[in-house]
Amino acid sequence: MHRVSIWCRGSSRCWHFSQGLQKGLPLKYRSVVASPAYCPAPGRARRLLHIASREADPVMMVTTLYLPSGPGPFPLWVFNHGRNFGNPVHQARSRPDALAKVLLREGYAVAAPNRRGFADSGGRHLSHWANPLSGGLCCARDIETVVLAMAGKPYIDASRIIVSGHSYGALGTLAYGMKPHAGVRALVNFAGGLRGESDQGWQEPLRDAFRYYGRRARVRSLWLYADNDSFWPLDYARGLHEAYCEHGANAEFVNLGHFKECAHRYVLDPDGVGFWWPKVAELLREIEA
């Protein structure tokens, strides 16, 4: 079914619908400009998109988009956020500015979606740390929606896509790797996993989830962990990697070393760019060779 972008005059907001769903739009949105080739003006590096899920009753996912200057098409980097303890509705909108800044210099467009039920996106987040396999699959559903929407943009090179995630978002990224878009070149796992607040009960289910995703993996992945991450002791993180690779998945594990007091959020820290970027730059060189 043909999908179009709907842009409100005087607004940075952009909705994405199949033509069949436009009839259900609120009246105030029916006088907008509709164009399947709408491309945001490149004057500002960061803007918001509202991307609709593919259900009959679509959920809007607020996505922070960073675009390099110029007309494109640009390779695409998708960044999937983690989860704080507590109600995800109260979580801040995903804005990985430090990561986006370095990737913009490399000519990448960066899309940072807020999955359903997080921040100001619609819908409900239904997964739980006690069932990380299901949780990762829920994430993968929303990641797929965003990748497909972005791959259809005229300013995106749909043959050059990297999908990444931090913590819970990395778990979802690896789940997405079971059925990736044809243009996805690699996945990047920034300290991935999903755990409860206590130290008991989540370790084995999480290992099983990684094993399940790895058995069905269809694209290479780079795993970037640290030796002072309070969420994942390094030996446990290595065990997740071993479980993922049991059936031959192509995944490189890297211990980045020590970062500040706790390394878990290194990819979101402006001071952390030098910590993780060399390995990512190496990956990009290999992909583009």
UniProtKB/TrEMBL annotation:
<dbReference type="InterPro" id="IPR029058">
    <property type="entry name" value="AB_hydrolase_fold"/>
</dbReference>
<keyword id="KW-0378">Hydrolase</keyword>
<feature type="domain" description="Peptidase S9 prolyl oligopeptidase catalytic">
    <location>
        <begin position="101"/>
        <end position="175"/>
    </location>
</feature>
<dbReference type="Pfam" id="PF00326">
    <property type="entry name" value="Peptidase_S9"/>
</dbReference>
<dbReference type="InterPro" id="IPR050261">
    <property type="entry name" value="FrsA_esterase"/>
</dbReference>
<dbReference type="GO" id="GO:0052689">
    <property type="term" value="F:carboxylic ester hydrolase activity"/>
</dbReference>
<protein>
    <recommendedName>
        <fullName>Peptidase S9 prolyl oligopeptidase catalytic domain-containing protein</fullName>
    </recommendedName>
</protein>
<dbReference type="InterPro" id="IPR001375">
    <property type="entry name" value="Peptidase_S9_cat"/>
</dbReference>
